[in-house]
Design a protein that fits this description.
The chain is an all-alpha fold and 221 residues long. It has helices spanning 3-27, 29-33, 36-56, 59-81, 90-104, 106-109, 117-131, 148-161, 178-195, 199-219. One of its GO terms (molecular function) is nucleoside triphosphate diphosphatase activity.
Length: 221
């Protein structure tokens, strides 16, 4: 099968999925009542099921879970298409995505050169910075609904970009492997459990303090 035929086949399958979602939205009494906000828990759940499939599932599991995640995108798009004031549909979503990816890959779609992953990242970050010119902080755009540990990793990276270092805790030995890191994290969670502390809340509170440090560093003369 040629690449062109395969591409057309894929487009037909995606179009069929979008049309199926449109019919469900219009004809299913449960789906008719669902809002973007109502879908958030399902989106989170489906995202985690994809992660589980990647880490410990089969190829068939991954294919199925990616489809379930795609359904969430189609569902949100179908809801958005019915907005009376500012509608958009899955074609608008796809068009916006394509335009963004073309901008962020000038070494693929233009005459920029990137021979290493590091050079690719330079192009990506430059394009992203141009798109987000209205942002006033490196912390802007980080979703606060992320799990605390994932949020911490994201914010620590952004903080480093602002020249703010996170001091190492004297309470734990520095892990030298990813496995040791997992063990250290688990030990800290167990310590929190023993003392009646909320590990999630503790990390979020520390992140809020770090965010204040970053913003103070950004506003300093």
């Amino acid at each position: 099968m040629s690449a062109q035929t395969e591409n057309a086949r894929g487009q037909d399958a995606l179009r069929a999925a979008a049309e199926t979602m449109r019919a469900v939205r219009e004809e299913c009494v449960w789906s008719q009542r669902i809002t973007h906000r109502d879908l958030v828990p399902y989106l989170i759940e489906e995202s985690h099921e994809v992660i589980d499939a990647v880490e410990s599932g089969t190829r068939a599991d991954l294919q199925e879970e990616l489809g379930d995640l795609l359904w969430q995108v189609l569902f949100h798009s179908a809801i958005a298409a019915q907005d009376p004031d500012d509608p958009f549909d899955i074609d608008d979503v796809a068009r916006t995505l394509t335009e963004k990816m073309v901008r962020r890959h000038p070494h693929v779609f233009a005459d920029a050169v990137a021979r290493t992953p590091e050079e690719v990242l330079v192009h990506w970050n430059a394009a992203k910075a141009a798109e987000k010119r209205t942002r006033s902080s490196v912390l802007d755009g980080v979703p606060r609904g992320m799990p605390a540990l994932a949020l911490a990793q994201k914010l620590v990276g952004r903080a480093a970009g602002a020249g703010v270092e996170v001091p190492a805790s004297a309470a734990t030995d520095a892990p030298t492997t990813e496995a040791e890191l997992g063990a250290a994290l688990l030990a800290l969670v167990e310590r929190a459990r023993e003392r009646g502390w909320d590990a999630e809340r503790a990390l979020r509170e520390r992140l809020r303090a770090m965010e204040a440090d970053v913003r103070a560093a950004e506003s300093a003369p």
